[in-house]
Structure formats: C-alpha cells, structure tokens
Amino acid sequence: REGIVLRTHERLWRSDRRSNGIAQSLHSLPPDKVRNSPYLPLKELEKFIKLVELVQSQGGTVVAHNAKFDWRMLKQTSLNSGGKLKVLDHLDLPFCTRFLLRYVSEDDRGDTCANGDVYRKIEGPELGEMHNALVDARATTFIYFYGQQKGWWTQAAKAFAEKQAAKKARKQRGEIREDNDSASEDDEGGGK
C-alpha cells in the first residue's frame, strides 16, 4: 500500500565500544546514553531483520538514505556483538534515496544529495536538527514519499539505466577496460 508506513524501528542500541566523538556529536548520541541503553544489539538486530522480512514479504519498500553504509554498519554491529557477518545477506538491499537522488534534477532536489539539504529544499515539516539519527530517518521517509509523488524515482531509474547502457556500449567499443570499473559508485544499487 503506497504511502502507508507499515512499521518503524526506532531504538538506540547499547554499545560498550568506544565510538568516534565527532560521529557521536553529529548524530546526537551521548556515550553514556549509548552505554546505558536497555536495547541489546543482537536482540534488536533480530527484531529489525524480522521487520524487514515482514515488509518485504508484503511487497513493501524498506527505505534508507545510504543503504550500503547502513547495511554494512548493521553487519558490523552483529559481528561486534558476537553475531554473524552474513546476517542480512538473505534480504534485499533497501531503497537508497542517496544513490537515486544523484539522478534527480538539481532544480528539484537542490545542489546536493545530502539528506538535510534535500529536505530543506522540498520544505518538509520541521523535524528537529538534521544528523540526529532519528530525525534523519524521518526526513528520509518524507523524501521517499515526496519523490514518489513527484515521479523522481521513475526519472532516476530511467537516467541510471541510460547511464549503465552507455557504459556497456563504451566497454563493448573498448573505451573502458574491464578491470578499471570494479569500484564504480554506479554499482551501489538503487533498491527496487
């Protein structure tokens, strides 16, 4: 059901690991609050995976601003907490607004693809200070639905497909070497 949020998962997971002070400050995560959180990472990750499985099994879309980074951090959290590395491998990567925003007109999204910049450009409702983890998640959800209404994601998927087709043609003509594009940002994926 388009436009309906089926479930959310908003938790600050406990961590005894020392974290980057800049990241803590930027994302409004005071060390004592993280250390004293009642939410244990492996239990919360298990709940989160069940939520993603539920949403994907019902044909829903899981949305993230920076899907590859988020997935990598969840895997790292699992490993650091005694879990498995392949913990998310059976799931589809979430729809990644950051990746597809690169293919949306700057007139629509603004000068950058940063969550806060796009959110301010489209004048979403006041949520609080950007880079607060929870505020960013809510802004990403708003951007996804706004972009869906405006046709951004269809436009972006078409532009991405055209870019990939042009890249394939250049490879076939020998203009691009095979070993030279293994780290292409365009292989990030854009979700479904």
3D architecture notes:
The protein has 192 residues and is an all-alpha fold. Helix content is 51%, strand content 2%. It has helices spanning 21-26, 31-35, 41-57, 67-80, 97-101, 106-109, 115-121, 133-150, 152-172, and strands at residues 63-64, 95-96. The protein has a two-stranded parallel sheet with strand order 1-2. Helix 4 links the parallel strand 1 and strand 2 (95-96). The longest helix has 21 residues, at 152-172. The model is unreliable at 180-192 (pLDDT under 50).
Please outline the helices and strands.
Layout: H1 21-26, H2 31-35, H3 41-57, E1 63-64, H4 67-80, E2 95-96, H5 97-101, H6 106-109, H7 115-121, H8 133-150, H9 152-172
Parallel strand pairs: 1-2
Mean pLDDT: 80
Report how far apart the termini are.
15 Å
Helix content: 40-55%
- Helix tally? 9
Q: Topology as H/E string?
A: HHHEHEHHHHH
Query: How would a textbook summarize the main sheet?
Result: 2 strands, parallel
Q: What's the gyration radius in Å?
A: 18 Å
Widest sheet: strand order?
Answer: 1-2
Net shape: globular
Which percent range describes the beta-strand content? Answer: under 5%
Task: Tell me the structural class.
Answer: mainly alpha
